[in-house]
Amino acid sequence: MSQSNKIIIIGGGIIGISIAIELKLRGAKVTVISRDFQQIATNAAAGMLAPQAEAIPPGKMLDLCLKSRTLYPEWVQKIESISGLETGYWSCGILSPVYALKDRENYALPSLNYQWLNQVAIHQYQPGLSPEVIGGWFYPQDGQVDNRYLYQSIIAAAKELKVEIQSGIVTEIIRKKGKIKSLKTSIGEIEAEHYVLATGAWSQELLPIPIFPTKGQMLSLKVPSYVSRENLSLQQVIYGSHCYIVPRKDGRIIIGATCENIGFVDGNTPVGIQQLLGNAIRLYPVLRDYEILEFWWGFRPNTPDEMPILGKSNYDNLTLATGHYRNGILLAPVTGMLIADLIWNNQSNSLLTAFNYSRFMEVGSQV
């Protein structure tokens, strides 16, 4: 494609903006159409980079996640250098405590760095854990990024690169003879040479692809003022079986997250917050005395196999990049790179093969 060709990305979350930046760096003219950001999965995330802690089974999904984790340090350095804003990236490692030996599941991959800590070792390594904890896995290569800082940084980088970002809602994709002709939007009808669908949980409003929202409720606590940053004992993410606890360098502690397949139902609920607090305090009891800062929720874009939909569609000028479920933040670097290479250089990486939408399609159907 030449620079005169205009690409429109539908969706202004972390995935859409990451693709826009990569395309712009390759020489593309890019416009992003973005709805209100309040409920997107980017805001609801905890920012964990946790392919090992989440025990993703060996296969293409794990390969994709590990590739993106490897890209992260250089990628955030690039974003920060363009934007001038920090992303909150922290290669802190993730600890996965368990209450019983039957919960000791882990995929033994000799190429990856991890270790089992017995009961004595884990309590020495992480003071303050519940006495119920009998051991756990430590994954030193997993880590985190502050999703809110990252999003501010990546938006600033896109604007610095002259990516055009328009606020609006795409209401209809106009299709004609195997191509996308135009988009009907709240700001008028617009056209481009190529389109990227990156609308996350709202993707099925525009195309018949199997994506549905999974609601996640979260909250944050504040480390008390009498606990200095230097003496803060929680220096890595704690990933339990029923919750995760994510310490931020600015003194916040993020607790998440519920998984509710109830559609687009807004709001926090007493039962959801009670569940999160109960599980977090059981795992790390010191939290019971910390101040509550904030509650929020968002909608993760889920698919039947919990893997994203990436790559070409049945339309010559439409590329799909959606359905990242719980791994949108983690997969932003690799998605941006792979989709930009596919569109701009017509270069299809073998990593994309397993994530094509056709794995869900019946004979004769079209997306």
UniProtKB/TrEMBL annotation:
Domain FAD dependent oxidoreductase span(s) in chain numbering: 6-342
Domain of life of the source: Bacteria
Keywords: Oxidoreductase, Thiamine biosynthesis
Gene3D superfamilies in UniProt: D-Amino Acid Oxidase, subunit A, domain 2, FAD/NAD(P)-binding domain
Leader sequence residues: none
Record field: catalytic activity: glycine + O2 + H2O = glyoxylate + H2O2 + NH4(+)
MF annotations from Gene Ontology: flavin adenine dinucleotide binding; glycine oxidase activity
Pathways involved: Cofactor biosynthesis; thiamine diphosphate biosynthesis
EC class of the enzyme, as a word: oxidoreductase
Gene Ontology CC terms: cytoplasm
EC number: 1.4.3.19
Stored InterPro entries: FAD-dep_OxRdtase, FAD/NAD-bd_sf, Gly_oxidase_ThiO
Matches recorded under Pfam families: DAO
GO annotation, biological process: thiamine biosynthetic process; thiamine diphosphate biosynthetic process
PANTHER family assigned: GLYCINE OXIDASE, SARCOSINE DEHYDROGENASE-RELATED
The protein, known as: glycine oxidase
